[in-house]
Automatic annotation (TrEMBL):
It comes from Thetidibacter halocola. InterPro entries: AA-Vitamin_Transporters, EamA_dom, EmrE-like. It is a multi-pass membrane protein. This is EamA family transporter. GO terms for cellular component: membrane. The keyword Endoplasmic reticulum does not apply. Residues 7-133, 144-274 form the EamA domain. It is found in: Membrane. Keywords: Membrane, Transmembrane, Transmembrane helix.
Length: 299
């Protein structure tokens, strides 16, 4: 497939993740963040394992659980802490910093060059997210700030290491491994930290099905596929599609207002995502980032 097709398919993942806030607030019981994260990850991971029939070899168990922690258990837990302690706009803006973190981590761990255009695109994207989401009521809670930065760093590390460690299996199998590992880490934490869930309604079950099957299994398969095919800095910029979708869904579905400043922020975010794809395009003098396994269709 062409690079453009790979980018569009990968962008579907964060665009769909933008529905997480709407589904969580409108369809799921409040006050059970770790439990809901476990129910989002583990059933989806086990379902994909049953479909792919591919278990990680013993040599990959350590890496799988580390990636499952970075991409799911640690990331989702810190994300919920930041969401509870900060206004959504502040939390999302801190999360957008992961694009810059990916550029730095990819340079250190993968030897990817740091391009001024890529850094500028990532910085402008953070500005766009801030304009899109931060309002005058924004407050700075130290614990929330630390959780937001930690969540961004966790996602950045998971993105880069998922590129560095590419097993000779399909993206669907790689997703199954990580989701299951993340769910297994989250499950005991949920049992220890939170009370039992109340009886779930049909709406609750539908919300969990959406977040698990679509918002986790399907989208993360696209995300990890993109990580294997596209430059890490370009992939990380696509994550900024999530707050744009969240705001648009709030406007369309919940009747929330959309100010001209937010419209400007959305335009800046979309422009920075486009600029980030161009700035992170490998030059002819730099070998392609695609691995032989990716080129042969195994990843």
């Amino acid at each position: 497939m062409s690079r453009t097709t790979d980018i569009l398919l990968t962008a579907l993942a964060p665009a769909i993740w933008g529905s997480t806030y709407l589904v969580t607030t409108e369809a799921l019981p409040a006050g059970y963040p770790v439990t809901l994260a476990a129910l989002r990850a583990l059933p989806a991971g086990l379902l994909l394992l049953a479909v792919t029939r591919c278990l990680p070899p013993r040599a990959w168990l350590g890496r799988t659980f580390l990636l499952g922690s970075f991409n799911f258990a640690l990331f989702w837990s810190l994300l919920f802490v930041a969401a509870y302690r900060l206004p959504g706009g502040v939390a999302a803006t801190l999360g957008a910093l992961q694009a810059i973190m990916v550029i730095l981590m990819a340079h250190g761990w993968l030897g990817t060059p740091i391009r001024a255009g890529a850094v500028a695109a990532a910085a402008s994207g953070v500005l766009g997210v801030a304009l899109l989401l931060i309002g005058p009521e924004a407050a700075l809670d130290p614990v929330g700030i630390a959780a937001g930065l930690g969540g961004a760093a966790s996602m950045a590390a998971g993105t880069v290491l998922s590129r560095k460690w590419q097993p000779p299996v399909s993206a669907l199998s790689f997703t199954a491994w990580q989701l299951t590992a993340g769910g297994l880490i989250l499950l005991p934490l949920a049992l220890i930290m939170e009370p039992a869930l109340p009886p779930l309604t049909a709406t609750n079950l539908a919300g969990l099905a959406w977040l698990g099957l679509i918002g986790a299994a399907a989208t993360y398969a696209l995300w990890f596929r993109g990580i294997a095919r596209i430059e890490p800095g370009a992939v990380s910029m696509l994550g900024m599609m999530s707050p744009v979708t969240a705001v648009l869904l709030g406007w369309v579905w919940l009747g929330q207002s959309l100010t001209p400043l937010q419209g400007l922020g959305a335009a800046i975010v979309l422009g920075s995502v486009w600029a980030g794809q161009r700035a992170n395009r490998p030059s002819a003098s730099i070998p392609s980032l695609r691995s032989p396994r990716t080129q042969s269709g195994l990843a």
